[in-house]
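Archive record
______________

***
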Amino acid sequence: MKALHIAATGMKAQELNVEVISNNVANMRTTGFKKQRADFQDLLYQNLRRMGTETSEAGTIVPTGIQIGSGVKLASTARIMSQGSLEQTSKELDVAIRGEGFFQIDLPDGTTAYSRDGSFERDANGQLVTVDGYTINPGITIPENTQDITISNTGVVQGVDQGGNTVQLGQLQLARFVNKAGLEAIGDNLFLETDASGAAENGNPGDQGFGSVQQYFLEMANVDAVTEIADLISAQRAYEMNSQIIQAADEMYSTTTNLR
C-alpha cells in the first residue's frame, strides 16, 4: 500500500510550507524584507494503463488510462519582490526606494551585495555605511560638522558646510535585474547576484526603469499578516488530512494482518 508514503510526502511538504510562512511572519518588521512562497510539484506517476494505447484491432484507444501518483515535493521557495509599504522616520540618513532598484553594498571580501534596506549611518570617517558597517557603492563621505543633509528623489546627497554653503556630497545609485526573484538571499537584508538574476544594471534613481528614493522613510517588509495567517491555517489543515490518511492506511494494514 503506497498511501503511507504518499501521505508522508504531503506531511513533509506542509511542514516545509509552515517553515516558509513562519519565516515570513518572523520578518514582518524587517526593513526591506521580501516574503517567500512555497511552490510544490507532484511526483512521478505509475502507469497501470497508459492512455492512448489501442484496445482492439479496430483502432479503439484508452481514453483516460490509469495513473497512480506518488506524492508531492517542494519545487521552489519563490521570493515575492513586490513593493513594501513606506514608513516615515526621523533620521535624515534613512532612505527608501520607491519602485525598481537595490542599493549596492561593498562587502569586506570585495563582493557587491544588494539591498532594499536604506537605514544608513556614518562611520568614524564620515562614510555612509549600513548598520553592519559596510560601505555603499559608490562611496559617499559626509565631512564632520556638515549640517542639514538632504537626499533628493534622484539620489543627490547635499549638505551645508561650516561656511553656510550648500555642497554636493555624492550621488546614490541603484542596481536592477532582469529577474530580481533570482537573487540569492544571504541574510542581513542582503542579496547576491546569480546566473538566474542576470547581471546588474546600474543607474541613478529616477532614470528610466529605476525607482526614486525617499529621504526620512524606510521600506517595510511586504508581508501581509492576514494572508500569512490564512496560509498557515490551510497548511495546518492539509497536514492534518495527510495524517488522517496515514491513520486510515494503518487501520487497513491492521485489518489485513488480523485476517484469519
